[in-house]
Every structure is written in C-alpha cells, then in structure tokens.
Amino acid sequence: xxxxxxxxxxxxxxxxxxxxxxxxxxxxxxxxxxxxxxxxxxxxxxxxxxxxxxxxxxxxxxxxxxxxxxxxxxxxxxxxxxxxxxxxxxxxxxxxxxxxxxxxxxxxxxxxxxxxxxxxxxxxxxxxxxxxxxxxxxxxxxxxxxxxxxxxxxxxxxxxxxxxxx
Length: 166
Hints:
Ubiquitin-like (UB roll); DNA polymerase, domain 1; 2 domains; 6 helices; 34% helix; globular
C-alpha cells in the first residue's frame, strides 16, 4: 500500500473584497497565509493556541482565530482582515472611539479587539458592559486594563443603535 501526501493545495477565496487564488502548504494556518502570502500583517500571530485573540479575523461573517484555522479550510470563504474593515470604512466609528477613549496603547491586540467588537456590534441591540466583557474574554490586552476598550465599544453600540455615527 502506498500512501501519498499532498504538500500543497490550491485555494480560492475572497479576501477584503478581492478574489484570491493561491497554492499553499496544506498545514499553513490562515493567519500565516494572510501575513506571509498576502502581506496583510494587521492581525498578529500571538500565542498560536487560539487563546489571546491577536489573530482574530472574519470568515464568512464570523470572528475566528486565524491561528486555529488552516488556510485550506477557507476555500470559497469570504475573509475580512483589519485592513479590509478599516479601508472600507466599516469600522471608522469604532476606530475613532478607540482613539478617543485611549483604548489602544501598544496596539498588538487592537486589530483582534476591533474584529471581535465588530462581531459583537453586528448582533442586534446594545450590549451592556458585562456582555461586552464576555464577548472580549478571548482577546487579551496587557496594556489597557479593558475599561477603555469596553467604554469605546459601548459608546459605538449606543450611537449605532440611536442611528448616529460617533
């Protein structure tokens, strides 16, 4: 019996609104594909175990850990990174609130925090502080103590619910 293993695979997906066709090593994680192959370095490879949230990106509208998903699993998916969300203006109000509340300091966790916040804000209603904290519980920040991050997200949630842009 002969067992053969493929070492590369062809994938097709949409990243930040652009069609992408690539040949990737079968074991390449999505975060590494985005960073190394596409040059989208906003999301970070932190713990590489899915617990820090620095690698959070959107796949088919859901926040996922890019370090836990293989690039091959993103076949036919729609992927949004912090660069795409930022360039499209989708998160302009959230970015402004993070700056206004000083919710970012070193910036390492910020892309993952913003993508996680988008995920929460895409749900209906205005989450209270406990819900915001729970939703962000998988995103670690060593600098801010989270209060400013929760403040920023809460501000944007209330403004969006009221039909305003902060």
